[in-house]
Write a structure and sequence with these properties.
2 domains; 7 helices; Rab4/Rab5_effector; START-like_dom_sf; FYVE-type domain-containing protein
């Protein structure tokens, strides 16, 4: 997401009847069910890939992307894509990272994944609930920057698509997450100047198979439209799919932000404890002057304990300011609090953000948020309807 650009929603909200909404949900459910059944078969054959149909294209660690061989589908102009392999993190962390039912959630997600350059929520069909915090069906628009577009060699691609996410269960009762992107069209969502409207259909299935390991199988196809060089289209398709490797990281950073909000509220009620002049991790003595008011870089922002330069761990967290800017701030933690954050209830964090609509307030990051200090990176983008 390019934080130096600003756009507004180029279409406005879609006008959808109850019948339209029901049809969209039915389409999404039907597509997801087909991919869910494919995943069950994938498990039945011990997750083996048919190399007579699929050709290895790229990999990141043990996660591999395959392209469909031409002789498997000779009539197709573009090959289908298959991604298989483990993702880091738990199922809930990956789901928390990928679900973005609102514009604000999309902006924060994109700050961690950098998966598109501009986007907007056009219609909300199904919202997350207390019982199903990862269940969402939304119509969205997004634009993807194409190398060479800035000098007029090619035009950027944009997509109108139905996004659906949620949880299903295998026959043995184990939870499986899904994430669907599927192109749709509406009269109101007209083609835009200097962009080529593309089409895509992707679906990822996620299944936790260890304490910090989630199996993934994703399939799809992307038609970027126009006369884009085939290899560029394929690379864009693979890059978009491989963004899933960062889902759990995004979920973990959002959990950290939520835990910060909790601790900040507790500190407002009881008062923040005074940091002892010793590192909470290695117990090294720290000069009292370094713990004075305003020196938040010397303490853990969760437990307020002192940290030496060696033991402090910095994480860059994203949030939306009251004037609708996307802001990022490096925040310091101790290792104990980071471990605690990974063990916290991810579904409850999702409920707070998606169901109760509680956003992290800038004050939890310290009084310097919004300044030009070395630890702050504040974007200039604002948007009520779209993001860029």
């Amino acid at each position: 997401m390019n934080n130096e650009r600003f756009i507004v929603n180029p279409f406005g909200d879609l006008t959808l009847t109850a019948g339209d909404r029901a049809n969209l949900v039915a389409i999404a459910d039907q597509l997801v069910l087909a991919k869910f059944e494919e995943y069950e078969e994938h498990l039945n054959i011990d997750k083996k890939v048919d190399l007579t149909r699929w050709k290895k294209f790229s990999n990141s660690g043990t996660t591999t992307a395959y392209l469909e061989r031409k002789n498997s589908n000779p009539d197709s102009k573009l090959p289908a894509l298959l991604m298989v392999g483990p993702l880091p993190g738990t199922l809930d962390e990956n789901m928390f990272g990928l679900v973005s039912p609102t514009l604000e959630a999309m902006r924060i997600k994109s700050s961690y994944l950098n998966d598109f350059s501009a986007a907007a929520v056009l219609a909300t069909i199904v919202e997350p609930t207390v019982e199903e915090p990862f269940r969402s069906v939304v119509v969205k628009w997004m634009e993807i920057d194409i190398p060479g577009a800035s000098i007029g060699l090619v035009r950027n691609r944009d997509y109108i698509y139905l996004e659906s996410s949620g949880i299903l269960r295998l026959k043995n009762g184990e939870r499986v997450g899904y994430h669907l992107f599927h192109s749709v069209s509406f009269p109101e969502a007209h083609e835009l100047p200097n962009r080529v409207r593309g089409n895509m259909s992707f679906c990822g299935i996620f299944h936790q198979e260890g304490p910090d390991r989630t199996d993934c199988r994703g399939t799809g196809i992307m038609d970027p439209g126009g006369d884009m060089i085939r290899v560029m289209a394929v690379m864009g398709m693979v890059q978009a799919t491989m963004a899933g490797l960062k889902y759990s990281y995004c979920g973990q950073m959002k959990k950290l932000a939520w835990l910060l909000e909790q601790r900040h509220n507790e500190a407002k009620e009881r008062g923040a404890p005074v940091a002892e002049p010793a590192c909470v991790t290695c117990f090294k003595q720290i000069k009292t002057s370094r713990l004075s008011v305003g020196r938040s870089s010397s303490t853990c922002k969760l437990c307020f304990g002192a940290l030496c330069g060696t033991c402090k761990i910095s994480k860059k967290l994203s949030f939306i300011t009251p004037d609708l800017e996307l802001a990022q701030r490096k925040v310091n933690f101790c290792v104990k609090c980071l471990v605690e954050a990974t063990r916290m209830d991810t579904q409850e964090a999702a409920r707070q953000q998606f169901v109760y609509k509680k956003q992290v307030q800038p004050s939890v990051y310290g009084s310097s948020v919004g300044s030009s200090g070395s630890e702050d990176t504040i974007s200039s983008s604002r948007s009520h309807d779209g993001i860029a």
